[in-house]
Amino acid sequence: xxxxxxxxxxxxxxxxxxxxxxxxxxxxxxxxxxxxxxxxxxxxxxxxxxxxxxxxxxxxxxxxxxxxxxxxxxxxxxxxxxxxxxxxxxxxxxxxxxxxxxxxxxxxxxxxxxxxxxxxxxxxxxxxxxxxxxxxxxxxxxxxxxxxxxxxxxxxxxxxxxxxxxxxxxxxxxxxxxxxxxxxxxxxxxxxxxxxxxxxxxxxxxxxxxxxxxxxxxxxxxxxxxxxxxxxxxxxxxxxxxxxxxxxxxxxxxxxxxxxxxxxxxxxxxxxxxxxxxxxxxxxxxxxxxxxxxxxxxxxxxxxxxxxxxxxxxxxxxxxxxxxxxxxxxxxxxxxxxxxxx
Length: 342
Known about the structure:
By secondary structure, the protein is mostly beta strands.
């Protein structure tokens, strides 16, 4: 199992993450390497001996050499609408073929808009034309506070980009759970208060060596063990924990703890607590003296299983944050907090 060393920005979500539902929809050209690589995890792999019919095989988006005026572009649907704060245009492994300049534009459109519909949309500047370094994570601040559903990456005049990240704040849509098994456990008016797409955010944890903490709140079920939150093996007394800020204050009524793919490394037990603490700082939330209210008492878990709890929960009331504790360590792929807002 390999530690994920990809950079993350605290308190921001990568809106252009394939795991969140982001995808590349259209581009001017991807002759050498597919546009779909842009939203994949990691920074791209490089095999110096890999060649195909069209030349060097690259793990990224790469257009052919432009022989006329103009520039190349790629339109991406974000995994959730949101305000973009930081952009990472990663040219990893693109050394003699990276674009010298790039810019980014955004638009707000229906999430199911087609490339043809987006071609006639009104696009606003998110990042004016900037120089790019070869083989590097090129990180820039957005200069727009608008909410976008789609971004357009422009490269001047051509070349290759390994990965594209758009870190920002999710604009919650508050749709009812659509995943069939979760929907069966949701009652009328209940939403997933902790979902990333609803503005939920993991703020702090004891450890996330094998899996970033916000994996816990992503949509769908994890495709493998690396798609969840997993701590290293605990060699000292105690337990691991993670603090999640809910997308909006709400009253938790049901929980899901999913150990999907965690078979020899799932936690033996778990508990969940809540707090109604709007505006609480991180130092307050993680302090030993902070008072948490029990929601789910310490409960046994099993491997590779979806665990649903409703009748087992305490009637604990309104919450802004929840804390999941796992005993003593291990991995949880997803946590859902079903309840009514407000």
